[in-house]
Amino acid sequence: MRELAARGWGAKRIAAELGGGAEHGAPVPAGGAVGVQQRSLRRSLDEAARTEVVALVDGAAEGNAVVVAEMLAARGVDASVSTVQRAVVDHRRQQRAADVATVRFETAPGRQMQIDFGERRVSIAGEQVTVHFLAAVLSYSRRLFVKAFLHERQGEWLDGIASAFRHFGGVPAEVLGDNSRCLVVAHNREAQTVTFHPAYLAFCRDWDVQPRACQPYRARTKAKTESGVKCVKRNAIAGRQFESFGHLEAHLAEWQLAADLRVHGTTHERPTDRFEREEWQALRALPARPLPTHGRPLQRRVANDALIDIDTVRYSVPHRLVRDHVEALASSDPRSDLTSPESSSIRLATSAAYLSRSQGAIIAA
């Protein structure tokens, strides 16, 4: 082989001539002895050992193949880390598939409404403004409601949900939302318990609706409204410019009506047809009387000019409260109760149009 290589023969020609091991085109060394590399056979575990490895991975080893290999070595079983990894590859693939698999949950008419917030930078009056919007979807008919805000706080959540009830003309049995701090105080995944915000619970009691929260980091639990949020971002407001916030609200109102007339990809029906045929009568009637408003309690210190700042708008208070800490209640109900003259707290009642920074009314002793 060395002589033929010295004559300029190629590896394949030498292999054909001598019938050697260079049939795959491996180069022949110009000098020294020709050695043959011996590779050890890949080790595999029998069925009993694989079952034991899977049990260790799911149990004490907590998925760590290195720990499993060490535990097997302590028991006298010779298995490398790669051997352990090969033994559990199918098991891990099945686990990943089970984790991402989702069974579509179809609800009865009037049973559930899903809610979620989204945000997007929108051009309003020539300026880029971050617009927050609530999307609410009736799970059965897929009717959609959208309302835009300039903030995403508890007041906006509650106002958006109540507006959705009024838009649909009725109240479903339950509302499924995410784990926003405006709605959920704590979510214990192990105990499967949810602690809702007291103000949200009071709101749900007023409307006689059951609050629900999806699993943390599992937004597809409320996939219907997640799709609605994406549709608003990519369809309703994408690439559009608006003269004012009111123009944006009017556009969304027209767009959602048109969205209810399209044929839905899952139900293969128009949401408005499905709603009028089966869901409208399943919703509970709206309250006959206006419900109390649950505002945002705020803590402010009165400045020397007898003004307090709320949402960049300054409101006057009695001069005797200068430099005192006061409590304010930001509410959409202009008929908030007066506080007693002896109290150092006030009630601030702004109209729902505070999104456009209207002054509203301040009620104080």
Please give the structural blueprint.
Blueprint: H1 2-6, H2 11-18, H3 47-58, H4 65-74, H5 81-100, E1 112-124, E2 127-138, E3 144-149, H6 154-168, E4 174-177, E5 184-188, E6 193-196, H7 198-207, E7 210-213, H8 223-236, E8 241-242, H9 245-259, H10 271-279, E9 296-301, E10 307-310, E11 313-316, E12 325-330, E13 347-349, E14 361-363
Family: Belongs to the transposase IS21/IS408/IS1162 family.
Organism: Anaeromyxobacter oryzae
Pfam families: Mu-transpos_C_2 (PF22483), rve (PF00665)
Descriptive overview:
InterPro entries: Integrase_cat-core, IstA-like_C, RNaseH-like_sf, RNaseH_sf. This is Transposase. Belongs to the transposase IS21/IS408/IS1162 family. Residues 105-279 form the Integrase catalytic domain. The chain is of the alpha/beta class and 365 residues long. It has 3 domains: 47-100; 113-282, 2-Layer Sandwich (Nucleotidyltransferase, domain 5); 296-363, no CATH class. The chain is built from 10 helices and 14 strands. The longest helix is centred in the first third of the chain and has 20 residues, at 81-100. It is elongated and about 105 Å long.
